C-alpha cells in the first residue's frame, strides 16, 4: 500500500508530504492553552505526543476539555499559547483545509450533512480529493461494510432515516474513507447500545492494530489515533496509552496497566468507577 500523503499548498505549488517522520511522532501538542474571550481557560498547558501507529485515548469527565483539544488539533480553534505540530510541522503552517483532509475526524454527534445520502456523506473527502468515481463507490461500500451497515440497505438513506448509533457509524466510515494518517475520534461509540458497542470496540481494536501493523510493514507508516471517551473500560481496552484530562489539564499519561494503580486523584476516581462496575457484576 502506498504511503498516505497530505498535500500542502505553498506559494501556488502543491507539495506532497508523507506522514513518515524521522522522530516517529505524528502529532504533538506543546504547552497548548486555549482561552475563551472572557479569559477562562478550557485547555491549559497541554503537552501530548502521539507516535505513528499509536492509539492514545483522551479520557476525562464531561467538560474536561476533550472535544476542545480535538478542535485545536484540527485547527477549528487556534491556541492562545503553545504550538501544535502535525507530521513535523506547526499546525499553523498547514493550509487548514488541506490539514483537515489529512485528518479523519469523527465528530461527537456524527455531524453528517442532513440532506445528503449516507453514500454521499461517506464519499466526502475522496470526492474533494477527486478520486475516480468507481474507486469512490468501491471505497464507500467497503467502509459501510466495515462499520456494519450493509450498503444495499443504508447507502441511499438520509441521516434522519437512521438511528443515533447508525449515524455514528456513518461518521466513523466517513472519517476512514480517504485513509488519513491521523484520526481524531470523539466518543465515536457513545450512542450505541452495549452489545453493538462491544462489537465495534472489538472490531476497532483489531482494525487499529491491522492499520498500524500492515501499513507499518508496507511503508513504515501507521495510523495515529486520538480516541476520546469518558468510559474507563473503553479507554483500557482500546488505548496503547491513556492521557487523562481534568479541568483542561493533562493530569497523567499512562500505559493501561499502570492506570488502575495510579495514586493521582482523578485516575483513582476513574479506577473506582471501574471497580464499582466489577462489584455490580459480581453482585448479580
Ligand atoms: N464556546 C464556548 N463557550 C463557553 N464555554 C465553552 C465553549 N466551548 C466549550 N465550553 C466549555 O468548555 C468546557 C470543555 O468543553 P469540551 O466540549 O471540551 O468538554 P468535553 O471534555 O468534550 O466534555 P463531554 O465529555 O461532555 O463531551 C466545558 O465546560 C464547556 O461547557
Ligand atoms: Mg466532548
Set out the fold topology.
Blueprint: E1 5-10, E2 13-18, E3 25-35, E4 41-51, E5 55-60, H1 66-73, E6 81-86, E7 89-90, H2 96-101, E8 103-106, H3 118-122, H4 124-128, H5 133-146, H6 151-154, H7 164-177, E9 182-186, H8 194-219, E10 224-229, H9 232-238, E11 241-246, E12 249-254, H10 256-259, H11 265-283
Adenosine-5'-triphosphate (ATP) binds next to helix 1.
Characterization of the model:
By secondary structure, the protein is of the alpha/beta class. The chain has a domain of 132 residues: 3-Layer(aba) Sandwich (Rossmann fold). The chain is built from 11 helices and 12 strands. It has a 6-stranded mixed beta sheet, with helices on both faces. α8 links the parallel β9 and β10. α5 crosses α7. The chain is globular, with a radius of gyration of 19 Å. The N terminus is likely disordered. The site of adenosine-5'-triphosphate has 12 residues, from α1.
What's this model, at a glance?
The chain has 284 residues and is an alpha/beta fold. It contains eleven helices and twelve strands. The structure holds adenosine-5'-triphosphate and magnesium ion (MG).
Give the N-to-C terminal Cα separation.
Answer: 49 Å
Per CATH, what is the topology of the domain at 49-67 and 94-102 and 180-283?
Rossmann fold
Query: Helical region count?
Result: 11
Low-confidence stretches: 1-23, 213-221
Please give the CATH architecture of the domain at 49-67 and 94-102 and 180-283: 3-Layer(aba) Sandwich
Question: How would you state the average pLDDT, rounded?
Answer: 83
How many strand elements? 12
**Helical amount among residues, as a percent range?**
25-40%
Strand content: 25-35%
Regarding CATH, which class of the domain at 49-67 and 94-102 and 180-283? Alpha Beta
Oligomeric state of the chains?
A: single chain
What small molecules does this complex bind?
adenosine-5'-triphosphate, magnesium ion
Please tell me how large the radius of gyration is: 19 Å
Amino acid at each position: 500500500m502506498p504511503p498516505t500523503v497530505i498535500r500542502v499548498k505553498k506559494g501556488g505549488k502543491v507539495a506532497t508530504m508523507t506522514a513518515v517522520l524521522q522522530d516517529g511522532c505524528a502529532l504533538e501538542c506543546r504547552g497548548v492553552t486555549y482561552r475563551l474571550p472572557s479569559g477562562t481557560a478550557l485547555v491549559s498547558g497541554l503537552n501530548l505526543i502521539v507516535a505513528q501507529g499509536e492509539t492514545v485515548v483522551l479520557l476525562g469527565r464531561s467538560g474536561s476539555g476533550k472535544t476542545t483539544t480535538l478542535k485545536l488539533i484540527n485547527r477549528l480553534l487556534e491556541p492562545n499559547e503553545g504550538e501544535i505540530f502535525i507530521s513535523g510541522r506547526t499546525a499553523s503552517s498547514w493550509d487548514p483545509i488541506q490539514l483537515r483532509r489529512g485528518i479523519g475526524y469523527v465528530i461527537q454527534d456524527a455531524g453528517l450533512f442532513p440532506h445528503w445520502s449516507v453514500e454521499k456523506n461517506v464519499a466526502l473527502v475522496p470526492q474533494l480529493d477527486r478520486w475516480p468515481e468507481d474507486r469512490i463507490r468501491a471505497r464507500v461500500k467497503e467502509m459501510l461494510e466495515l462499520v456494519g451497515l450493509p450498503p444495499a440497505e443504508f447507502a441511499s438513506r438520509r441521516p434522519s432515516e437512521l438511528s443515533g448509533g447508525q449515524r455514528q457509524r456513518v461518521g466513523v466510515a466517513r472519517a476512514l474513507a480517504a485513509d488519513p494518517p491521523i484520526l481524531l475520534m470523539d466518543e465515536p461509540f457513545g450512542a450505541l447500545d452495549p452489545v453493538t458497542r462491544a462489537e465495534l470496540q472489538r472490531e476497532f481494536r483489531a482494525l487499529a492494530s491491522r492499520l498500524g501493523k500492515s501499513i507499518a510493514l508496507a511503508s513504515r507508516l501507521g495510523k495515529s489515533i486520538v480516541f476520546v471517551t469518558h468510559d474507563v473500560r473503553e479507554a483500557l481496552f482500546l488505548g496503547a496509552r491513556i492521557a487523562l484530562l481534568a479541568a483542561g489539564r493533562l493530569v497523567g499519561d499512562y500505559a493501561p496497566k499502570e492506570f488502575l494503580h495510579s495514586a493521582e486523584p482523578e485516575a483513582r476516581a476513574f479506577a473506582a468507577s471501574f471497580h464499582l462496575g466489577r462489584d455490580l457484576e459480581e453482585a448479580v
